[in-house]
């Protein structure tokens, strides 16, 4: 997360766009003080997005008996696309082929991530499903990061992920989980990593949330046939439609908008490591909404992933305050 500096490096310029006020103040009076809002604002966006999406997922589990996993995905993405298209009214002209390629790839990643994840939580508890899914962002943080300390924090978070794997799984490891559900969760994690990459790229190419709205429409079109085949007319029941809209707002509209805004202000490696908070949030949502109990081992795992995430953020802030000559941030 870059802090304002009198002469930002090229890598800093590509990872965040300073406001006019910050730029003017810096030019006139030298380095501006780094406020708590500047440092932790993007972090708050990511955490808020995580809370919203995981409680939305818990709500989705409750309506799966009505519409099925693919049906819930279709409701979620179609409703979210409709809301975003109405709110954003994105322009469709003036973009290059590369711009459209990016937004289509973002939509494909979004559809794959949601489709695979919902197939997973239809078979295994929410906590272990998100625990397996988060391996994708963790792998991305290790691959993309150029700072050795991020490997340490990723390793600590991975340790928490391994411990949390006991949640709902009958002891350490995933031996008692449905194999298909676990495989779907791992696949969702791979698509989650792709989502992070293309969300950042889309945010740089499209203004406001226009790219997100267009990508959501792509994802909805991809998921629609699968939902219709599985659920048919069940998707049109008014109460199911209302609940689907709630899932769309909690799990798509609000969190994806917050994440897109965050990715404009922080580098992808930091964002990816922050995603290690998701298993903790998911386990909490599962406990509060779905009565999925947490053990002492789960609590220890949650503490590890939170410590890893906070450590990664603090080290990233320190790196931004004193950037090296060749530091890569995006």
List the helices and strands and how they pair.
Blueprint: H1 10-15, H2 20-29, H3 36-88, H4 97-121, H5 126-133, H6 135-144, H7 148-164, H8 179-205, H9 210-231, H10 238-263, H11 268-274, H12 278-290, H13 296-321
Helix pairs in contact: 3-4, 3-9, 3-10, 3-12, 4-8, 4-9, 5-8, 5-12, 6-7, 6-8, 6-11, 7-13, 8-10
What does this protein look like?
- The protein is mainly alpha-helical and 330 residues long.
- Helices cover 76% and strands 0% of the residues.
- The protein has helices at residues 10-15, 20-29, 36-88, 97-121, 126-133, 135-144, 148-164, 179-205, 210-231, 238-263, 268-274, 278-290, 296-321.
- The chain is globular and about 45 Å long.
- It starts with 9 loop residues before the first helix and ends in a 9-residue tail after the last helix.
Number of helices, where a helix is a run of at least 4 consecutive DSSP H or I residues: 13
- Largest pleated sheet: none
SS strand fraction? under 5%
Radius of gyration: 20 Å
Distance between the termini: 10 Å
User: If you average the pLDDT, what whole number results?
Assistant: 76
- Spans with pLDDT under 50 lasting ≥5 residues? 1-32, 167-173, 321-330
Helical residue percent band = over 70%
Structure summary, number of beta strands: 0
- Broad shape: globular
Give helix and strand order, one letter per element, not per position: HHHHHHHHHHHHH
Structural class: mainly alpha
Descriptors:
330 residues, 76% helix, 0% strand, mainly alpha, 13 helices, disordered N terminus
């Amino acid at each position: 997360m870059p802090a304002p500096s009198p002469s930002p490096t090229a890598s800093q310029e590509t990872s965040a766009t300073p406001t006019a006020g910050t730029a003017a103040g810096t030019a006139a009076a030298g380095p501006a003080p780094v406020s708590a809002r500047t440092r932790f604002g993007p972090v708050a966006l990511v955490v808020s997005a995580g809370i919203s999406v995981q409680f939305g997922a818990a709500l989705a589990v409750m309506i799966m008996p009505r519409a099925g996993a693919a049906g819930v995905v279709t409701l979620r993405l179609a409703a979210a696309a409709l809301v975003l298209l109405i709110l954003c009214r994105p322009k469709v002209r003036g973009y290059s082929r590369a711009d459209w390629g990016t937004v289509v790839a973002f939509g494909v990643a979004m559809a794959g991530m949601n489709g695979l994840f919902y197939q997973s939580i239809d078979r295994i508890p929410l906590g272990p499903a998100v625990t397996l899914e988060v391996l994708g962002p963790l792998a991305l943080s290790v691959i993309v990061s150029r700072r050795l300390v991020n490997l340490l924090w990723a390793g600590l978070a991975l340790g928490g992920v391994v411990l949390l794997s006991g949640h709902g799984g009958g002891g350490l490891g995933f031996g008692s989980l449905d194999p298909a559900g676990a495989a779907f969760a791992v696949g969702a994690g791979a698509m989650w990593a792709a989502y992070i990459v293309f969300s950042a790229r889309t945010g740089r190419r499209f203004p406001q949330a226009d790219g997100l709205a267009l990508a959501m429409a792509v994802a909805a079109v991809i998921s629609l046939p699968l939902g219709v085949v599985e659920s048919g007319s069940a998707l049109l029941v008014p109460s199911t439609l209302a609940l689907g809209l709630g899932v769309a707002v909690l799990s798509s509209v609000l969190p994806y908008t917050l994440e897109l805004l965050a990715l404009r202000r922080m580098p992808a490696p930091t964002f990816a490591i922050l995603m290690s908070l998701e298993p903790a949030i998911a386990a909490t949502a599962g406990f509060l909404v779905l009565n999925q109990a947490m053990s002492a081992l789960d609590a220890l795992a949650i503490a590890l992933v939170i410590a890893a995430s906070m450590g990664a953020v603090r080290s990233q802030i320190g790196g931004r305050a004193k950037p090296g000559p060749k530091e890569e941030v995006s």
